[in-house]
Amino acid sequence: MSDTPSAAAAGTISIGGDLTVNRMGFGAMRITGQGIWGPPADRDLAKAALRQAVDLGVNFIDTADSYGPHVSEELIAETLYPYPDDLVIATKGGLVRPGPGQWTADGRPEHLREVCEGSLRRLKLERIPLYQFHRPDPRVPIADSMGTLVELRDEGKIRHIGVSNVSEDQLREMQKLTPVVSVQNRYNLGDRSSESMVDLCDQESIVFLPWAPIQDADELVPVLTSARRLSASTQQVALAWLLDRSPQILPIPGSGLPDHVTENVAAAALRLTNDEANAIFELVAK
Known about the structure:
By secondary structure, this protein is an alpha/beta fold. Helix content is 39%, strand content 14%. It has ten helices and eleven strands. It has helices at 43-55, 71-80, 109-123, 142-154, 168-175, 195-204, 221-230, 234-245, 258-266, 274-285, and strands at residues 12-15, 19-22, 26-27, 60-62, 88-93, 95-96, 104-105, 128-133, 158-164, 182-184, 207-208. Strands 3-4-5-8-9-10-11 form a seven-stranded parallel β-sheet, with helices on one face. Strands 1-2 form a two-stranded antiparallel ribbon. Helix 4 links the parallel strand 8 (128-133) and strand 9 (158-164).
């Protein structure tokens, strides 16, 4: 790997046809406190992690109003504003936080409007490039929730609409209401429940943002074999495998530690052989 890792080594991806970013992003959930609640234990270190990501060519940052809540968005603006011209900040709404480690869906139109406008203020943006519905609320019709996002887009407050934690049936229902440019579901070496969703996104040129992208793979022989050949960590191989899995995957590993950010971004330069990628895929798919 190069002595100077860069997110650009992963190539680029188009979001919505008019936003192009490097295909190694940064997830800003971990720059908050324990349980994704409150401020980070070391605010300066968290800000340094954000700066390190951007310095290494990351120009896609994923966050949400519920991270903290509000803390992640506030730190992003405090650290990076005024933003680089090529930086795309994606945020989400639709979850509320009763306490540390607790997440409750709220897809009511009035809530989504309130939190979107709050994100605009905290991030110091006139328009959010990618706004994602964080999770469908079983108490609220999808048409009501998505209709609000369409209204916010038409008002110029958001540019593109994405969704998160959805099934294929839910995505199809949403697509009848508006174009959906991204899907953010949990997906990694150990959790393959969204396998068919990755294939769907690949077929329809929808960006797939895997959350929790790094799975502990220290006991998987094909991962260890690739890590030895590449002089890399198994976590880096896990990220390289995601990049190889589909050109529509945009990994968003997160960390509150600058050194860890550097390690994650360095995975953008790793290249698995076809045999290695297939061996990993077949092993963890069993």
